[in-house]
Queue: 4 jobs
Job 1
Amino acid sequence: MRWLVALALLLVLPLVLPSFLVVVMTEIAIVALFATAFNLLMGFGGMVSFGHAAYFALGAYAAALLVKQAAWPMPLALATAPFVAAAGALFFGFFIVRLTQTYFAMLSLAFAQIVFTVLFKWKTLTGGDDGILNVWPPPALKSPLAYCYFTFAVAGLAMLALRAIVDSPFGYALRAIRENPRRARFIGVNVRRHQLFAFVLSGFFSGLAGGLFAFFNGSVFPDFAYLNKSFEPLVVVLLGGIQSFFGPLAGAVGFKILETFIARQWPVYWPLFLGSAVVLVVVALPQGFVGLLQRRSWRIRAAR
């Protein structure tokens, strides 16, 4: 019943909200998909990547280049973009998953910086710091309302696929690796293969989020692969709840609301405010917004 109410709200709200808030809802859906893809790696696999924006950027640039340079239709370019990102994740992940913890995180950051540098320097292909402009969806999806519903549909299907992955035997093997890699290896789980597959899947869905954002933003820039973008899904997951599948969605809502109403009013103080909020959540709410809601729900049920 709750899911039906939530679905009805998602379908009705864009019709009654002003265009500005419809745009914010579209951004929330894209950020939630990106963060959920990242959480497959961190929350369920126990692998922290500091360079996941690389796959977001690869998806965004692949979609933009296919439309602008190859004259592909937008749906085909968007469908191809995550495979390009997954190919990049397969190549980089082959080296990254051989390391653990700090070295894993730092090597992922190093590869992301390589992607950023290539996008920034290869001006003949990527436009360099000028980016690629006028990457818009077809007329049928050009209005904020139409693209909002399109993003909801694509991101919703992707989230369902991610939920199926998390609830599959592969997802449970990934949790076992997170808890104790040595024990998982002892019972026959191929740790490196599972980690690499999770890395590729996370890159795939991150690339899909990047493709959606490219057409939403109408342009792509090298900053999509920069360090700030890599920290975005990390912050969103921490706000929402690391080991909850719906944590990134809750975190995306909170993050975009804060960014919309605080960063636009006081941009100079936004990093300070966001950093303070993350510290507060990590210290006071280690399970994020979702954990807080779950605890309140349990207390209500216990009181009855």
Job 2
Amino acid sequence: MGNKQRNNKNVKNSKKKKGKKKIWKKILLVILLVLLVAVGVFAYRVHINGGGMTGMLATVVGHDENTKKNLGELRVLILGISTDQENVELTDTIMVASYNPNTQKATLLSIPRDTYTGSNPAKATAYEKINALYSRKHRADETLEAVNEITGLNIEYYVVVKTEALIKLVDAIGGVTFNVPINMDYDDSSQNLHIHLKAGEQLLDGDKAEQLLRFRHNNNGTSYPEEYGDNDIGRMRTQREFILQVVKQTAKVENIFKLGEILDVAEEYVITNIDFNVAKDYIPYVVEFNTDDLLTDTLPGTTPNLNRTNGVSIYVYDKAETKELIQELFYDRDIEETQDSTQANTTSNDTTSSSVSKSDITVEVLNGSGNSNNLQKVVNLLKGAGYRVTRTGSTNTASKTTIVNKKNVKETLLKNVKDVIGVGIIENSESSSSKVDVTIIIGKDY
């Protein structure tokens, strides 16, 4: 073949290669443009769904800007089941949990395990205690029916969490940091239960978490101090506060990569009638939940003398007080939210203005002192001084009383709050999403 022919062939091959390169460049450009458009659309959807982690999760599960608006309050019965005795599944933990994604408010109401569900306390039997209902048929429906009868809440969903689930979940997220309220020292060989924990903040693994939640009293008969809540009342408080920490620490960003392991635990050890389509609608908004908006309490009632209850230790709930508490926890909060919003729209939002008075400041009081009486004392002092207390609740034990400035309130007013309650460290932690101007955490120094 001559040089001229070879050159012509090389030119043709070169043109073909260039042509192919141009085609691939066009294809890559089209792919890049499609990806950019897709990312742009996704980013836009994330933005209109609230942005951040919430917006991203909401977009991934197919929500739009109207989905959350159409979601109502979710109420669930939570049952913690002890499985260390063969064929005996007693309910150690009974709680009603509610969550409203639109107001970002939640409630935990503890039901004492000895709550009597029969009709005649004078002839009470252990089988009529609410913690024994699940063990009859190993189903949650009887317990759910009893709780609905007691509370009037018409709860539809339940979640049954067995002991193994708690142990494995806590281990899956690397343990839970918690302030153990007292030294705990108890042994029961019949249940293979051995509880040995020291008081103070520490990292609890699954085994220690089980010890914490099952503790009622020590080997020598002592229990939680009266101001914390003796025996079952103290135990329920510890359970609520521990669950709060589990929620907070499970929701950490780094635990997203452990989601598969967490779901495996849930699939094996958790029983629920919550449909996946219901759960997925609420999950994106739970991640933005502020635990300061959680209210906790215990079903009100008394423990009668054994000679009046057939020798059986039972807890008789007070119907009138229960009705008032249910109204306060599950209904008045939404009314309060509406009233606050209405007032906010008719008054200035500028809390730094010189025209702002005490009655314009919304105050939240959280009790972390360990003494239940302190909450009402502080609330009464603030109201007596002219402040508007819109939220109350409990929180983890705090050593120092803290006055947190959430909405750039004038320093003179914060100092006045301190003077009114008599103690407190003033801190600034501005939050545009906060529903109150000032949060007061009552500490042990009160």
Job 3
Amino acid sequence: MRRILALSAVAALTLAAVPSAAGSSPPAPGVSRGGGHGHGHHADPVRFATFNASLNRSNEGELVSDLSTPDNAQARTVAEIIQRTDPDVLLVNEFDYVAGGEAARLFRDHYLAVGQGGADPVDYPYFYVAPVNTGVPSGLDLDNNGDVGGPNDAFGFGFFPGQYGMVVYSKYPIKAKQVRTFQHFLWKDMPGARLPDDPATAAPADWYSPEELDAFRLSSKSHWDVPIRTPRGTVHFLVSHPTPPVFDGPEDRNGTRNADEIRFWADYVAGARYVYDDRGHRGGLARGARFVIAGDQNSDPLDGDSIPGAIQQLLDSPRVNASRPPTSAGAAEASLLQGGVNLDHGSPADQDTADFAEPPGNLRADYVLPSRKLRIADSGVFWPERADPLSALTGVFPFPSSDHRLVWVDVDRKRGRR
């Protein structure tokens, strides 16, 4: 659980196809793909997935360097997990943003398009990247420590601009001209915003000064509405990565921000009029539009440090289909083997998506949530049991891939819907 200047987002969208390759590989645990599933076959559900792959690096330019050859061990392991689950549309969190999409292209061409560990290559002709708030200097003392500068005073925690960014890969065309980004949306412009309060003063919600609130952005990374032209019609892929609700003090500035970053999508799919994007266009998602909300939300329904009810803003939304939570046998096994605080958790262990040390222990942090206009045909978490040879891809600390697990949901139109 990890934790701008211009009004136009600089985005990169590639239309160059990746060469496909033949071959066969065993399915991932809990993953079943019908014949002909994938690009060009209209009879099967569409698989959406999210994966906090921990492909962030400590220094600017390091990710491009690592991905410039096909030999980075972590990237190969991450790619194999993706290949074995074979999502049609995928969000990767904690993937450093590089202008022009160079890092995203290198990962696709050098890793995803090359079979890893006996798995088939996966073909993503389309991807989308855009700037994020992490590491972008605010010029303000946002952590109130008396100094300006450093990762805590960036618009989102980060040591350089773009650290902990994200990328969307798709087998289906991305409607690039219709993408909406919300990198610059100000937190104070959300009605009823949970603005943090400095407990040392009598004034309410005063952790940030009026000057700071005039600049402070809601998104710790960004919120993107990426429309995908799938065989089941256009689906709006609503992606983000809210800040972890820790690494702060009694003012709970990260916890309150996390809850409102989650709330943003709940309001957006309800058609909230207060919302404005980075081009200045107002309003939420059009009524009746199909969507899938995805990302590391850094919030478990019952456990961990997020504000109570934070993720329920999505799970309990009348517009969200949360009827079939993704599960894995590996998560349930890990909870029993690791013991400790995991045994006292309230959320079902088989729904965990992240393998954290204590505190907080293992949590459900990552979500793929379709709209009610989409039927969930299947779902799962890539977390093999230890007896499965593929468990080497997830491993134990220090993890060969990530402390998060890939989460996927297969969706289809509901019967009678157009």
Job 4
Amino acid sequence: MRVLVVEDEKNMNRLISEAMEDEGYSVDSCFDGREAIDYAEAAEYDVIILDVNLPGCDGFTVVERLRERNCSAPVIFLTARDSVMDKVTGLNAGGDYYLTKPFSFDELRAVVNVMTRKYTGNRTNEYAVGDLVVDTASRTVTRGGEAIDLTSKEFALLEYMIRNRGVVLSREMIENNLWNFEYEGGTNVVDVYIGYLRRKIDKGRDKKLIHTVWGTGWVLREE
């Protein structure tokens, strides 16, 4: 999953970004409202974590402009402005959740999980294909009841594939969702991680779940 963190206080921006990276998310960050609009138009984000008091333009305006431009990414406002009127304004502007500072990082992680469940149509944190089960909250993976250990990036790739089970994912789609703007691409890193997953998910099993669609990409499905 790819997350955009928009917070002008640099230390707070770093802490939030690190918390999301620890969860295995690919994170971009910026410090200005106008810059946030540029980022959101240049990439598809699963969640946008957005301060309200920003230079350039405030968070409410950022969301209004993104919604006008058909950006449907869920937005979590993260701000010290805690009046009822501010909350109403933010939600009416197109925000999905309003979290006031000071906040708990555990709560922020839980809200991010809720937002991603909501927008993928899953009512729980568990996703399944055949006997493969991925729990995005506990970050556990099992196949046939057997636990499978994955690195953070391997889990992020599997999570992206199982949230889009049955959909053929191109190399570009995977790069855009698992790596931030600092990643330059042009290497076989996606192929390498697909190989890692295959060895852990499919090796030694009669029924393969990760399939190559030649000339297009990969798909996670039961055949």
